[in-house]
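input
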Amino acid sequence: MQRVSCVHTQILEIGQPGNGAVTAITFFRGQLFVGYFNGTIRAWDIKGQRAVIIREVKEHKKAVTCFALSETGQNLLSGSADKSIRVWKMAQRKLECVEVFQIKEAVQKFDIYGDKIIVLTHKNVLKFSCSARSTQTFYKSKHVKSLALSQGKAYLGCGDLSIQELDVSVESKIEIRAPTRSWRISKQPINSIVVYKDWMYCAGSQVEGSAMKDWKKRCKPTMTMSMPKGTNVEAMAVVEDFIYLTCNKSPSVIQIWLREKQQKVGRLPAGSKITSLFTANDIIFCGTETGLIKAWIPL
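output
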């Protein structure tokens, strides 16, 4: 069996003060796009370990909370606490806002499937139709905390530890994990859901994972990673051999866990509280409350 190297090398550290915390990160058209607490969006051109700001816009009135790419990859969408989702395109090497969708509530996270946008807000799950400009509300009483979208289905982690599946096209709803009602189990909500390859992982007071087909059969999770008492996972990313976690007890550190062995093998210091986590091309990125962006790659 091949031994997995757990060593990570830092390959990037960029940032300029003045815009507040980094609240969203993504890649679009080969450039690193970063959203900030004050509503600014910046694009960085990355060359090796150097980065240059090549675009900056500020059209959101409040924090940029999330990004998503259109299915064609031609447009970047940004969600914000100002209750809007903006659609951006590159026009003559400039970032131009071509459409604005007004949402009823502050946008915490969203994802796209065809003409539909599934939006997670503080209170509800909304399905927004771009063509009809109409909104439907789901799971009003579930206190949904996390969202992942895969193959036309939205997976929603709830405050009662249940996981809901919503088929975006036909609006069928299935509960693939029942609520936890035992007083002995700490009721930390599912703060993060990640679909990686054919597995789904959920994280709160512990991390659980199974093949998607086993979740749908409501089998016991194949893997469980227990956290120390009082520790709650706030964000999670999964890449190849690793699961990356940020937790309430050590908010300025990314924990590195081996995915197959469920073993903690290292940590990545961010320097201050981590406010955004993102992965691309086996690289793990984080943004901090001081406006710094760091990135590491496993060797």
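quick obs: The chain has a mean pLDDT of 93.
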